[in-house]
Amino acid sequence: MPLSPHFHWLGEGRDYRATWAAMRRFNARRGPGTPDAFWALTHPPVFTQGLAGRTEHLLAPGHIPVVATDRGGQVTYHGPGQLVLYTLVDLRRAGLGPRDWVYRLEQTVIDWLGARGVSAGRRSDAPGVYVDNAKVAALGLKIRHGRCYHGLSFNIDMDLTPFDRINPCGYEGLAVTDATRLLGDTDALPTIARELAAGLGLPIRP
């Protein structure tokens, strides 16, 4: 039976490597009764390579660091103005499979945008959320013994030019956008993070 996850706003500018290490520690130490957790934050500029990442998709990283990580997927960019929601969830305990969780992650963004008048959708060939073929949210997970970490990145109000330095998610020429370009204005990142977490179907604790 799922336990209500704890929601944590960890703030802006959180170092990627330190956060990744903290996720691995959380996952390694958790037991059958450990509550799940949602960690919301932003990172300084960084490119991350998933397990399927290929160097040819790093076109010109320049001064932005590149971190090879253990999530699924290809290369993506994290930076200021992008909301990252890490979902440390015991999927097996919740009765969910990996595809179920991917669907929920995508759907919470689709629903959030839809409630504000923006029609968004998913693609069968490339996980994530898209508006008019421009990617607004990406996701990648690591699952060990039925327990997942990593999660969702949602472009809110950011400089999108670093995406020109890569083939986002391994797709040459893939367009990207953010919520501010779509909506004109958005709420504060902690507010959006809590709304997304609430949309995942697991009642959250403060």
Give a description of the structure.
The protein has 206 residues and is α+β, with helices and mostly antiparallel strands. The protein starts with 5 loop residues before the first strand and ends in an 8-residue tail after the last helix. The strands form two sheets. Strands 1-2-6-10-9-8-7 form a seven-stranded mixed β-sheet, with helices on both faces. It has five helices and ten strands; from the N terminus they run βαβββββααββββαα. It is globular. It has one domain: 2-Layer Sandwich (BirA Bifunctional Protein, domain 2), CATH 3.30.930.
What layout of secondary structure does this protein have?
Blueprint: E1 6-11, H1 16-29, E2 37-41, E3 46-49, E4 66-68, E5 75-78, E6 82-90, H2 91-94, H3 98-114, E7 121-123, E8 126-131, E9 134-144, E10 147-155, H4 179-183, H5 189-198
